[in-house]
Amino acid sequence: MALSNWAAYLNRSTKLLRDSSIKILRMEGADGPSRAPLTLFRLNSKQDIERFATGCDADIGGTSTVHLELDESTGRNKGSGTTATGRFWGEMRLDVRPELQGRIRGGYTGFRSKPRPTLFGEMVDDVSNHQFLALRLRLGGDPRLRNSYFVNLQTDGPITTDLWQHRLYFQRNDGDWEDVFIPFENFILTNTGELVQHQITMMRERIRTVGISLLGGNSGVPGSYDLGIDSIRAVNEEDVSRPPSIEKDPSRGI
To answer: What pLDDT was estimated at residue 27?
Structure first.
């Protein structure tokens, strides 16, 4: 394990132990669960960006490209409330390498938070006391791709290929920042890209990873994509500043 990774491992372990001890000392839960907003991830520094992994169809023979970088552009960060944010960008392409045509499907890119192992087991997030996932985002790139973004949650369940998914619905079309709110109860369970027939209740006490994917192959739309990400939080109704995003037809959400 590299020195920087070992330091991060120890820091996570210390944080988990400290947070658990504080909960015990404060007897959290005795006065009811906290409804305060819970920040899951921020993307405002290089260290924040390093907590995420990227992938795209090029990993298996496609031709799309993917980047997740710290964006310090004054113009793109205007209105974000910070000087640096994450930038998820690249080219969405539907073609695959000639020798793989008809064998694989192209047209996807994405990123997700990395698993967080500690000395006491893997670190997970408990959002059971919150109603909504809140994302502060900036939509750029080819406007034809605006309905092809999805947010993905992985819980600490027995089937590692299960993902809870919901489409990202944007209201702005001017490239400015906006808050997107999604009810946790509206996420649908998928497995390897397919809708799971028998839906179950999300284990919101143990959120393992959070990510965003762009599925241009589903809509048959190629093009340049560009998404700014400032923060990902769990909030309640009193913190929602615009109507939440609700998937109209879950069967078409994949």
So the answer is: 54
